[in-house]
Design a protein that fits this description.
Elements (H helix, E strand, L loop, with lengths): L12 E4 L4 E3 L8 E6 L5 H14 L7 E6 L3 H11 L5 E3 L6 H6 L2 E2 L4 E2 L2 E5 L5 E6 L9 H9 L1
Parallel strand pairs: 3-4, 4-5
Antiparallel strand pairs: 1-2, 1-5, 3-8, 6-7, 8-9
């Protein structure tokens, strides 16, 4: 079951690339983009995350960004360092994809998160969703710009 605009995000607790435990409650009080990706160190994911970094890092006018992937924490940490990312990457590694499943963006056939971004308000209520239906199709940076401007 997917969550939709108007729904509260599900509760979760995941470990970030820097070994910090983070839960849904850590994002209360601020607008946040929960960006689910299939694979760090893949062409499309790398392009997406670099576009987010280049367009929205250090911008106090846009929601905080959190990346969630089913890859292991050490892989995520290497990815963050390689691309000089300044936002956390959370490992939905074990139980495999459990949080992605709660959000409704896990692909059981392939064992990955699909490309879905849930933008929330200060109460963790989903206000916008940016997604693609194909694993190889990136989300448009223009969709983020539009979502963040309204």
């Amino acid at each position: 079951m997917s969550i939709n605009i108007g729904d509260k995000i599900p509760s979760f607790n995941l470990v970030s690339n820097s070994k910090v435990s983070m839960s849904d409650e850590d994002f209360l009080g601020k607008k946040t983009s929960f960006v689910f990706i299939p694979f760090p160190f893949s062409t499309v994911c790398d392009k997406e995350v670099c576009e987010l970094r280049d367009n929205f890092s250090n911008n106090t006018e846009t929601p905080d960004t959190v990346i969630i992937t089913v890859c292991a924490r050490p892989t995520n940490d290497a990815w963050v360092k390689h691309y000089n990312l300044d936002y956390p990457v959370l490992a939905d590694f074990w139980p495999h994809g459990e949080v992605s499943k709660k959000f409704g963006c896990f692909n059981d056939q392939v064992g990955i998160s699909m490309r879905v971004t849930y933008i929330t308000d200060e109460n963790n209520i989903v206000t916008k969703i940016i997604k693609t239906d194909e694993i190889i199709e990136p989300r448009s940076i223009e969709d983020y710009k539009e979502a963040y401007s309204s």
